[in-house]
Amino acid sequence: MDPNKHRPSSAFDSSYWTTNAGAPVWNNNSSLTVGSRGPILLEDYHLVEKIANFDRERIPERVVHARGASAKGFFEVTHDIAHLTCADFLRAPGVQTPVIVRFSTVVHERGSPESLRDPRGFSVKFYTREGNFDMVGNNMPVFFVRDGIKFPDMVHAFKPNPKSNVQEKWRIMDFFSHLPESLHMFTFLLDDLGIPQDYRHMEGFGVNAYTFLNKAGKEYLIKFHWKPTCGVKCLSPAEAIKVGGANHSHATKDLYDSIGAGNFPEWKLFIQVMDPDHQDKFDFDPLDVTKTWPEDIMPLQPVGRLVLNRNIDNFFGENEQIAFCPAIVVPGVYYSNDKLLQSRIFSYADAQRHRLGPNYLQLPVNAPKSPHHNNHHDGLMNFMHRDEEVNYFPSRFDPVRHAEKYPIPDSVVSGRRDKCVIDKENNFKQPGERYRSFSPDRQDRFISVVVDFLSDPRVTHEIRIIWISYWSQVDKSLGQKVASLLHVKPNI
Ligand code: HEM
């Protein structure tokens, strides 16, 4: 055996108990004591190691999206989009790429019920030949805020009250009463879609706009959409209480059991494509993440399919240690100037260096499956085997060269240094269109959730009036219905 090649794995398990260092353990039942009833000896190394390991089993949970479930499978290109992007994994129909997907809830802790009203995360890690590509999305196509600087406050408002440790609706209604940009997202969260039946029956969205670049360097703004082949299904609030009461991991179980039974979940990937020269042609800013792009103008174009056909081997290694990051892209895919995406580019890797340590990308689930090389090395828990003598660049002894240049957006960016808002706020039009697209019974269900949120006794009259004014600007009859159910006479 080459000791340098040996990596810890249950495949190398001994047939008898050992310490972590491999020494035989002859008794895993009784501690080493002085006599049969005396105190335990500190020299019981195995006992101390066992308890010390146990004491450290938990790592910090994700600051958001702590609760989740993962599964593995593949992505297959079904339609030729090589004219839009030079991404190798999208090069031609039939090309398959291994993936791992993590679904999640957002607000509550690692062990919280999966039946709560909350957006769901939908993250896909593509292990491509040109490195990993992480598509870190949600099950709703828009977001609450359009500038990442508001994200920590937004999360604080949704998370439990720091005093009572209970999520309280008055805090949510108070915070967002300052932010009418959130209305569109609330027409998703407070709608039926706010409680998906499970992870298989929901859509996914890249949410932020990204850029595709083709071989010639031509740019396209794009949005990603995942559509489940088994359709979208949701739970009513009453069903959610029942389902969550019976099993707080119902969605994890559903995913695991259906893959185990050979009923493989599948999604089709579509993109919307915008010519960057057309960005100013709309009454909204296409880089504003609170907006959807009209599908009649930018229709969904099919790209491929995602099939989840393998359960994970280990929850800790493939769910807790997995690290997704919207900054992890491949040649042919680039960010856009969407302000919210720009903050996300920084935030995830920063969180993961804290949560998992500086070498988190060496963890098997995160490491690229393609060859990779650089001189970022050492640090806490580095376990990469290296035997080269040159760890600097450039060097006449090291043949490693720069990669071929690939296209990145080359448009000129200029302007005065400033803290700006997006000009075309247009906060009310799209939520109004969405509300009016609901069937009457869906509108009623939506209104009852809106009213439930505003009925929290700590929501003040002032906050209720503001919300009624917002909902009235979304749709007059919606505002009137909310006002009448809350017994409030708005002066609008
Ligand atoms: C500026 C706004 C945002 C910031 C600063 C932010 C930050 C974060 C952070 C720090 C994490 C935890 C990462 C970890 O510890 O591994 C996270 C997770 C996540 N975020 Fe965001 N986020 C933002 C907006 C969004 C948006 C718009 C989406 C949807 C497109 C989204 C989807 C997700 C998902 C799906 C995860 C969980 C990834 C996983 O499964 O591990 N986030 N976010």
TrEMBL record:
The active site is at 65, 138. Keywords: Heme, Hydrogen peroxide, Iron, Metal-binding, Oxidoreductase, Peroxidase, Peroxisome. One of its GO terms (cellular component) is peroxisome. GO terms for biological process: hydrogen peroxide catabolic process; response to hydrogen peroxide. Its cofactor is heme. It catalyses: 2 H2O2 = O2 + 2 H2O. GO terms for molecular function: catalase activity; heme binding; metal ion binding. Heme binds at residue 348. It is found in: Peroxisome. It holds the Pfam family Catalase-rel. It is an enzyme of class 1 (oxidoreductase). The keyword Glycosyltransferase does not apply. It comes from the Eukaryota. Residues 18-401 form the Catalase core domain. Its EC number is 1.11.1.6. Catalyzes the degradation of hydrogen peroxide (H(2)O(2)) generated by peroxisomal oxidases to water and oxygen, thereby protecting cells from the toxic effects of hydrogen peroxide. Belongs to the catalase family. This is Catalase. The lineage of its organism: Eukaryota, Viridiplantae, Streptophyta, Embryophyta, Tracheophyta.
